[in-house]
TrEMBL record:
Matching NCBIfam families: choice_anch_D
Domain Cep192/Spd-2-like: 69-169
InterPro entries, alphabetized: Cep192_Spd-2-like_dom, CFAP65, Ig-like_fold, PKD_dom_sf
One Pfam family from the record: K319L-like_PKD
UniProt superkingdom: Bacteria
Native source species: Lujinxingia vulgaris
Protein name (database record): Choice-of-anchor D domain-containing protein
Gene3D superfamilies reported in the protein's UniProt record: Immunoglobulins
Amino acid sequence: MSALKIHRVPLLRRLTDLTLPTDTSMIPIPRFPRSSGLTLLLSVVLSLALFACNDDQDDGNITGTDSATISVTPSQLNFEQVAIGDSIAELIVIENTGEATLTVDDFRIQGENASAFSLAEDSPSSLSLAPNELAEIYVEYAPTAIEASSGVLIMSTNDPGNESFEVALNADAPTPQIFTPEIVTFARTPEGSEDWRVTEITNIGYAPLEIDSIELDGHSDFSMTFPQPTGEEPEGQFPDRANDTTVAPEVILPGESVMVRVIFLPTSSEFRTAEITIESNDAESPRTKVLISANSDAPCLEVDEEINFGQASIDNVARRTVTVTNCSAIAELIIGGVEFEDDAGVFEVAESSLPGNLSTGGVANIGPRQSVNFVLTYAPLEEVLNEGVLKITSNDAARQNTYVDVVGQGSLLTCPNARARARVQGTSRWFDASEGIVASPLATIELDGSLSDDPDGTQVTYEWSLRDKPLSAQTQISPSITSESPTLWLPYAGRYVVELTVYDGAGLTSCEPSALFIDVVPGGDIWVELAWEMPTGARTDLDLHYLNVENADSWNTSWDIYFSNRNPTWGDGSETSLDRDDTCCGGPENVNHDEAAPGDYAVGVYYYPGTSAGDNPTDALINVYLGGTLAQTFERRMSNQREFWYVADLSIPDGVITAVDDLGNGFPSL
């Protein structure tokens, strides 16, 4: 049938001089001797004519000019990682782009390593699709072993050109992924007094995280143990130190964490630092570091000890961004000067990038835990190693003059090109460095450096850095700053700046880093954001409250949005929700209120006793956004469980915020 369709039209075109009767039923079909080529040809022509005429009947068969055509999107499924015992589904769309009904059946998955794939339970055994009709089929991936999986989904069709259609199925082996806080800080601790902090090492991957070693390096005033939970600890409290061990864990299962207790026993009041190094089987981050600092209530300057330009092209100007952080939780850091004490004639500070009034002989003021950036340039003149020393003058009593080594190597090669782009996870639009990116709080950004290249043709490697972020945002590039395509969680509203530097196969660095500016803007009419600092090693749980004053008789009721009433329906056409409730770790928590009805509302914070370990001083921060713009910020130290901070009143539609700033025991009366 299909062969006949293919060959019929050309044959008739060669015999246009033949005239056939309209009543083909009267045409006699005689038997011809096999030796007669002409008569045999006429017989074929007459048979074709009969077939062509019969095609006009509406009998549902594929005609000589019409056929079904299968189109499958995508033609290959690449599954994300999931843990053993979990599953994920991916969609394929089957469409009939032909002119006749398409039938698809005999679905089957084959391959030597295909046992992890299956069709969803409600998948049809066969499809019958009219022209331009489509159907959706879900394929599930459920790994049972730590190994890569591959297979082929095969289906049979009546498409003459694709009687058997295949969709490739692939899934990488589940892998572990380590996650830790970036830094552990201690407030000013008197000499001879002891303090401790508990941090966690978490496996956010999909395979067991094997720990090779966990080592503490730095000042001897720090020590480290591993708490051992008994399961009988009061809610919100860490295990007793009497049960701690010095033996590091060997394996962390997916989704689980282990605790590390860092102990600080200062022998002086001077600034102290150390770091924890974790070596594991996380291929993307085999060596993870957690910085530790203490006695930082005085002005405290943190900066990289070395700025390495790597190899840089002669006759080009390479740039590097330097980040200076005030590691004090209380005091303001004042920078009085940034200059090269020894620059080898090739290094310079880009004066236009200096923060504050430094470029005009003034100073730069950096608030507690805040950071500033400036740019260094390097213009090598020949193929030699260049070295310089950058001096930063500040009011950090421990080191009023901070020295940073700056090195670079001139090269005749052409520098590679750093090209960063990003998109909000779950969307398809990519934004490059020339465009600003706007995202919502709590979103995750996917970063990508794959468009970077080297004109000399070598493979490039990547180095990402988070140059700026909102003050409260405890987030980091994950899983590694050297990944081609890492991610960044955006916990708070504000601006985040991510920078990409690439290196070619010879170690030559990109002349210009590629910077992405990400503005996190709350949606809706009203957005209230809570964060808090925990100056002790205990868990501290603060709860955000947002009250409809027009209808409420008291706080902690159905007219109050908080962790037990996250999505109330107030019946006034507004949309309200508490998007995140954090029970231990400084937030964020947020309430959003859209299409807000005219009236009065109130914001409060409660020091929740249920998951807090003791009465510990906690610095709370409230940001109120109106129409996506930061309208007002409030700060208050809360010291005791069951304290309630009545922050402010808010009037709609005029958008007037009135500070109350009242701290008392328990929920206040209205």
